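Why does residue order matter? Because the sequence determines the fold. Keep that principle in mind as you read this record.
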Amino acid sequence: MLSTKYFKLFLLFILIFKNFVSAQESHVDLYEVDPVGFLSVVIFAHIFVPLGFIGVLFMLIRIYFRWSLKRKSLSMALRVPFYLSILDFGFLVFQAITDGYLAINHTAMSGTTCKRYATVTVAFTLFHRLIIAGISVITYLRVCRNKVCDTGRYDWKLFLPVAVLSIFIAVSAYDTYGPVIYWCAALPNTIAIPISSICMTIIVLSICSFCYIQTIRAIRDIKKQQSSVAIVSGVVGNKSTTHSPIDSVEIKVSKKVMGYILVFILQWVPAIPYDICQFFGRAGAWVYCMVIISINMGPIGNAIFYVMNEGWSRYGSEINTSAYDSVTDKSSTKVDSKNSTIPNYDDNMKFIDIENGSFDIEKN
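Structure:
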């Protein structure tokens, strides 16, 4: 049968992979050293990694349905969860390989294989963190500072510098990588390694937290101002005036984006205790279990937020995000003078008057 054929190919892949690293593998049997810790790490990994895959596949399938509805570039409200799903999928693949090897051999990889594997993993981890930090800053600048960042087609201006920086940092620390009990990472042989890791984690989480708090506060203030204006002014015909940097559509999209950033913050907070334990010598099995659970709860949390934002429907909510797309798209990010026409904006929103630092949107 077809399923039996694929199962045999899977077993063959495992055997090839095992023989490839057998000459370099460590001979320390972690099950004999700490059976409870070893089983805890393996069991938690085999429970939460599949759950993470389910969350990622759920989001990718739903986003595909949303894209197939109009077959055009994804809005910011969908691009962010799409990027997160791709990054989380990469993490899950790395974890599946690491945990599968650990369960079969009762030890982590070693030698050159471990160093190369750790280099790729560290580069991917840095890329993931810096991308989310960049999205946080972009959202903060748009909502709180009324500045639109042009990230180029397919957001290459965001991805390319981050990718180059991540690869450079990971490769420059190649000699410090090796087996760290249950997986391959930077060895805490010197005080600089754990301190650098702690500082990187704290800086990224601090940036994301600051942007999250300030953006949510700004959104609440804008909504209060809009409510006050609506109560005092009312609605006259088809015209209305709102004194806020962004309109109601952008507020909804920004809230969606910040929800995913909140999940990222919660996802990586347990990395701090792990780095601290590495700084003082050796992390216990419970620390590894906590990291495994938190990282894999990221895709699950993102899937939950996606349902909260877009609903259970295959094609999601009917909220029109074209206004947000227009001001974040390259063709509509510059306003040079008063009463300027903004290309690709909604047909019923033609002009923007800049007065006293606020946008007055006139609807025809």
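Residues 192-233 form the longest helix (42 residues).
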